[in-house]
Every structure is written in C-alpha cells, then in structure tokens.
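User: Some background: our group keeps a shared notebook of sequences we're curious about, and every so often someone picks one and asks for a predicted structure to add to the entry. Today it's my turn. The entry only has the sequence so far, pasted here. Could you supply the structure so I can complete it?
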Amino acid sequence: MRGQWALLRGLLRGRDNPLRRATDRREAWVALGALLLLVIGAPAAGWAGGSVADAALQRSVRAQHQERHPVDAVVVGRVPGRERYVGDPEGGSERAARIRVVASWQAPDGSPRTGEVATASGSGAPGSPLRIWTDATGLPVAPPMDGHAARTHAVLGGIGTFLLAAGCVEAGRRVVVGRMVRQRYARLDREWAAAGSDWGRAGTGG
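Assistant: Of course. Here's the predicted structure to add to the notebook entry:
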C-alpha cells in the first residue's frame, strides 16, 4: 500500500519530466486502479458478503425457530461419566458445565418420550424439571440459533470477504507490475545487445 502511494506521488510530481517512460505511466495507472479497488471495491465486497451471509443466517434462524420447539422435561437419572464443558454450538452462549441425563417428556403428538439430553450441571438430580428443544417428531435437538449469534457470524463473514478481496487486488497488482517490469528489462536487454557491438567505437554516433 505504501509503495503504491509513493509511486503515485513520485509520478504526479514528475509528470512533466522528459525522462519519464511510458512504462512508468502504465505502472501508475495500475497502482491507481489497485488503490481504488482497495478503497472502494474491497469494502463493497465485504459489505455485500456480510449482507448475503446475514440474510442466509437470518433465514436459518427463522426456520430453526419454526422447526424446533421448547418442551418441559423431567430428569429421570444422570448418565455417569458424561460431564463436560461445552457451549451452545448454534446459540453462541458462553461455555458452561453440561452433563448428560436421562429425561422424559411428551412429543408434540402427546406420546411419551425418554432419552439422553444435555443440561446444566446443577439440574441433574432425578425429578428436576428442565427445558429441552425437540423437532416436530419429538426428538431432542440443539437449541435454535439466536439472531445475535447469526449477526456476529455475518459480520465475521463480511470481514473475511473484505480481506480476501483486498488480498486478491494486491496479488493481481503484483502480478501485473511484475510482468511489466520483466518486459521492460527484456526490452532493455534487447536494446543493449543491439547497441553493444558498436559501443565505445569512434565514429559510431553520439
């Protein structure tokens, strides 16, 4: 980035310099185009990427809240050796001690269900009430993602898109400028080779 600014400042100060080469002007245009893409294009790509991710995640949040239902259950017994520290994988809650217990509840059609579910470590005694989430068939599922967690994921996605776009712009600039520099040196080598046989001889011109 600093190299692009230095190149542009130098060329603007020396735009009337008769020693300025055509390749210098082309490199300046490349630098200017890359700078505009970094200042305008990359943030726009990040905003677009974040917006698309947010829309998709919010649709997922709404779908999960429609498909998953909170159900009151009762602890039947604790599953030995199943305590661990976990966090809500979709809701974005803080990590907390969780245990696996056997609980009973009613499915949406009224049929009784029993199975292993995760709950806070302080509510694992038999007979303790707990709230679980089930799908339409009554099977336990993870809690639905909340809107705040979805928005956080979308912001991170937008930042990632911005960084990716900026990296692509800078990589493209380096490739183009590198090719132009190689072409310049190749042309100088050809010109030097053409003039080298007569270089330094008297009467061969200025």
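Suggested note for the entry: The helical segments are 2-13, 22-67, 147-196. The radius of gyration is 33 Å.
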